[in-house]
């Protein structure tokens, strides 16, 4: 199983929506895919379920040996329980074969400070040695039980210890962003932060205490698969293909420049880039966007109600749109479908080389 972190510490970049759409497309291409909701807001879990008619969270478990969410999965390590981390029961999609949810839990954030302490002191305090490898163990064991090919890890928009741990124990990562000033600032921030995380990872992976833990800290260097830009308007000019409007195009160019001048150099120095030829063969150059997904407009609300991605909406069956409105939305659906299809193919090609 390949574990891919979906991460940007800037919020509002449609990270969760992209994760769900990408997971669905990957499964439609024959991969067994698990989405892991590690954001305590649990938006991915809600997106997966759609509208649920219940007052109780459906993924609570009274059996400590059969967890149903990410918080309960790692509880044995964080609360020193006298039993081992067990594979979590995944929730299969009712409408998409090969797609599974590893549910989130708002209580995962309760372990943030404890994990931060373990990151700093587990090399001297053996009582903390099982904590740094716990999240990876929970995800890997569940993926193994369900024969998962790819796990997409949806993370919160922060630079906290949980995200540091999830990111640096993943095989690869994707950075979602929006074409705006704050995404450009976030890229420069990541260029400073990720090398520090990489140095920490190297020390943790080489620590004899963590290697001897019940849940060993994995020796993995996550590799950059690419960046995805979303939430912009585009317009057709004559017979040319529709492109971002002038206002957004400015930020496209600014983001590309920041990637080239700040981010990629930092990743290269930390060993987090694949060989350049691999990007070329996958038609996914590292200094360009892996996908460009324009605004989903009103279709996203419909998709969320149906617990489907936008490209799986059947306008005739799922909506009351007809005539020119339906034609406009149909064009949008086809465009989104093609973007995610080609993006998913690139990601498969890249992860095959990990």
In short:
Helices cover 45% and strands 12% of the residues. By secondary structure, it is α/β, with parallel strands linked by helices. The chain has one domain: 3-Layer(aba) Sandwich (Rossmann fold).
Explain the overall architecture:
By secondary structure, the chain is of the alpha/beta class. It has a single domain (2-351), classed as P-loop containing nucleotide triphosphate hydrolases (Rossmann fold, 3-Layer(aba) Sandwich), CATH 3.40.50. It contains 13 helices and ten strands. The chain has helices at residues 15-28, 43-49, 70-78, 112-121, 134-145, 161-168, 181-205, 208-211, 246-269, 276-281, 299-306, 315-318, 323-351, and strands at residues 2-6, 33-37, 91-92, 99-102, 150-154, 172-177, 223-230, 234-235, 243-244, 289-293. The strands form two sheets. An eight-stranded mixed β-sheet has the order 3-4-2-5-1-6-7-10, with helices on both faces. The protein is globular, with a radius of gyration of 20 Å. The termini are close together. The mean pLDDT is 93.
What's the count of strands? 10
Major sheet size, sense and barrel closure: 8 strands, mixed
- CATH fold description: Rossmann fold
> What is the CATH superfamily?
P-loop containing nucleotide triphosphate hydrolases
Poorly predicted tracts of residues: none
Rg calc? 20 Å
What would you call the shape? globular
Helix and strand run: EHEHHEEHHEHEHHEEEHHEHHH
Biggest sheet: strands side by side, in what order?
A: 3-4-2-5-1-6-7-10
Quickly count the domains.
1
User: What is the second-level CATH architecture?
Assistant: 3-Layer(aba) Sandwich
Distance N terminus to C terminus?
11 Å
Average predicted confidence as pLDDT: 93
CATH class: Alpha Beta
């Amino acid at each position: 199983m390949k574990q891919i972190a979906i991460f940007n510490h800037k919020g509002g970049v449609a990270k969760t929506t992209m994760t769900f759409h990408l997971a669905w497309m990957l499964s439609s291409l024959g991969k067994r895919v698990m989405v892991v909701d590690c954001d305590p807001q649990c938006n991915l879990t809600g997106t997966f379920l759609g509208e649920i008619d219940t007052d109780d969270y459906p993924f609570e478990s009274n059996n400590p040996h059969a967890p149903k969410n990410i918080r309960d999965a790692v509880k044995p390590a964080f609360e020193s329980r006298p039993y081992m981390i067990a594979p979590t029961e995944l929730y299969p999609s009712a409408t998409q074969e090969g797609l599974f949810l590893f549910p989130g839990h708002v209580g995962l954030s309760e372990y943030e400070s404890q994990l931060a302490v373990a990151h700093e002191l587990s090399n001297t305090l053996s009582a903390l040695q099982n904590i740094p490898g716990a999240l990876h163990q929970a995800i890997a064991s569940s993926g193994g039980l369900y024969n998962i090919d790819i796990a997409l890890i949806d993370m919160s928009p922060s630079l906290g210890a949980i995200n540091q741990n999830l990111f640096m124990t993943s095989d690869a990562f994707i950075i979602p962003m929006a074409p705006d000033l704050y995404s450009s600032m976030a890229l420069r921030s990541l260029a400073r932060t990720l090398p520090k995380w990489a140095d920490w990872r190297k020390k943790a992976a080489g620590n004899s205490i963590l290697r001897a833990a019940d849940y060993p800290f994995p020796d993995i260097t996550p590799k950059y698969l690419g960046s995805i830009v979303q939430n912009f308007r585009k317009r057709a000019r004559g017979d040319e293909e529709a492109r971002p409007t002038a206002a957004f195009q400015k930020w496209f160019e600014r983001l590309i420049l920041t990637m080239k001048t700040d981010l990629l150099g930092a990743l290269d120095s930390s060993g987090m880039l694949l060989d350049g030829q691999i990007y070329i063969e996958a038609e996914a150059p590292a200094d360009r966007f892996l996908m460009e997904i324009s605004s989903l407009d009103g279709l996203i609300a419909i998709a969320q109600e149906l617990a489907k991605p936008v490209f799986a909406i059947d306008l005739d069956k799922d909506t009351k749109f007809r005539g020119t409105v339906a034609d406009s939305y149909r064009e949008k659906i086809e465009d989104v479908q093609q973007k995610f299809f080609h993006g998913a193919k690139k990601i498969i090609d890249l992860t095959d080389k990990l």
